[in-house]
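We close this part of the discussion by returning to an individual protein. Part of our work consisted of pairing the sequence of a single chain with a tokenised description of its backbone. What the numbers capture is local backbone geometry rather than side-chain detail. The amino acid sequence and the backbone structure tokens for this protein are reproduced below.
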Amino acid sequence: MVTVKTPIILVNFKTYIEGTGKNGVKLAKDAEKVNLETGVCFGVAPQYVDIPVIVQSVDIPVFAQHIDPMKPGSYTGHVLPEAVKEAGAAGTLINHSERRLKLADVDAVVARARELSLVSVVCTNNIAVSTSAAALQPDMIAVEPPELIGTGIPVSKAKPEIVTSTVESVRRINPKVVVLCGAGITDGEDVAAAIRLGTQGVLVASGIVKAKNPYKVMLEFAEAVTKR
């Protein structure tokens, strides 16, 4: 199992065709190349069916985009945490704004991830939800105001107070939780701003996956982290 380190740039492939199948493998290899060149940890979150082949292709952390809290049994259509673990995933996103859960379900999923030693990254949309999530003891929290996702307007610039207040609130509840920020991250300065505000990395999707040259953008992101 590869090690998840901070600062981290976690790339969510979503269901973009640019991150699907062979395209996803190429993206992951580009991320691994930047990791080797800069020493900055990159993680990738592909679609479930692409997890095994990407795990076999690269030596960087691979995350699931979601898991369900159930144990093995009669749950057709659900995502079993054990299956994700067996596929080679190092962790999972939880409660992304495009896969929202109730707080009780977030608690159950975090517990299942912990049971299987999967790194849990709980996505939140504001300070209050981030504070509540911190009490559930996930490994990471990624704050992403949903209205900024995919806009190219980074939360670190549009709403920096959300980032700083989230970092402060989470650390008061559980100082061990790593805080990331996302939404609208498109260039190195966005990453540098997020780090200056107290986060330990970023969660990014279209800014890398749909870029004309994803490798170049990832290199820029990594250099922003190393030069902070």
